[in-house]
Fold:
Amino acid sequence: MTSGDIAPPATFYGSGERFATLDEITDAARETLPADVWDFLAGGAGDESTMRANRKAFERWTFLPRAMSGAEVPSTWTSFLGVDLSMPVLTAPFGADALFHPEGQRAVARANDAEGVASIVPEAGSHSLEDVRAAAPAAAMIAQLHPMGPETNFRAMIARAADCGYRALCVTVDCPTGGWRERNLRNRFAPDPAIITGNYRAAGSPEPQEVFGQLFDRTEPVWSWDRLAEATADSPLPWFAKGILTGADAESAVAAGAAGILVSNHGGRQLDGAPAALDQLPEVVQAVAGRAQVALDSGIRRGADVAKALALGADVVIVGRLAAYGLAAAGEAGVRRVHQLIRAELVTVLTLLGRGGVRDLDAGAVRRSRS
Structure:
């Protein structure tokens, strides 16, 4: 047995913690949630081939460790669209958040604040942009919008986000209609609409059906890039496009004014048969060519995945299901533990790769598997 095979003291792994691994958090969430809510959260579109492909894509990349590097203790600090981050991670704008915990995105934001992570706060959330921002203003930095419904409401939501202190906008462009999610269909899943209307309860707000009706009953044309460019032209906040999978769409988003691109297939929840997000990342990075920052979501399940995404060109990653699992498992504390475990593994990987920080990761740190 070599020194590398000798297990450190149990306290090294945080034996006093309720959760020692991210899988334990996932298991706890599954045990806590009703079966139909678990299916809503964990499931994907169609036969879930894209959801599975997201994970397989990470398995196709192997690390190339660097021995005796002389590197400093790795730094995980970075930034995205001017938002400082203790590590290159943001939480996704998953809506219907009160299904997983009564405090929903408010608890996520408080956990993010404690761990130096930023929240993307959902439009279709259980709590309003203002309420989540008030819960943790240092973390609730990015507001999500959907380019659908009345343009007057879209512009009003931009103004609301700016007025209460958000620093950027996430515009979800891959959701002009809801994906074909058969787990939900089999379960006859029909939650209370209140779980997605936290932003539309105040007097003077449009009816939620006006905004979100197009997800279920297509009666209006899908927005175009030109229409989105016009609707965001006077925005005081930079925005990034969530749901890009091709270089062509990345080019269109940048031309429309996007300051960032989120490479994503919605976690496999929209179009089944779409490619894995990680597989598309290099194409998008090449197309953007430094004109916008690039983020990745879909399939992130551990700290090593974060390192692979950054090595392939992402500036940050966005975690959705992992954050929701933490929320369901133990509320704010569960989300904090997700971040702690991601960070711990990321630092371990950086050390073994001989990199002094996340900004030192490049394509030389990985190789596509030959098997």
User: Anything to note?
Assistant: The longest strand covers residues 140-145.
